[in-house]
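Issue 218. Parser rejects a valid record. Input:
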Amino acid sequence: MHQHHRGYGLIELAVAISLIALLASIAVPTYQRVVRKTHRSSAIAALMELHLRQEKYRADNAAYATALTQLGTPGGDVADYYSLSIAASTATSNTLRADARSTGNQNADAQGDVSCARLEIDQSGTRTPAACWR
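Output the parser choked on:
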């Protein structure tokens, strides 16, 4: 008489764990990349909002603002992942900047080989690095 045991053997368990590890090694980096890109989109929206406020400020004051407090705080949770600043400002030119914080590994954000850890837009709407604004 044969007793028939039900259940999984060590080999089946090892194969299942290996498959789960393989799927996780593919899914986790992809998920992190998507999250970083989402945070980048928030930073871009904040920079665009500040850019519009900067142009309105100049129309009202004949010079660009030199401090973010003059423009107000943009909406969203961008401050959790990016530090916003006015990198340069004169009467006729300005550059707004978003620098990635190390929180959540945001400073590892890239578009292809181009780092997206620093985003900038100037008074003429020139966006750098261009690859990160797409």
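Fixed in the parser; the record now loads. Helices lie at 10-61.
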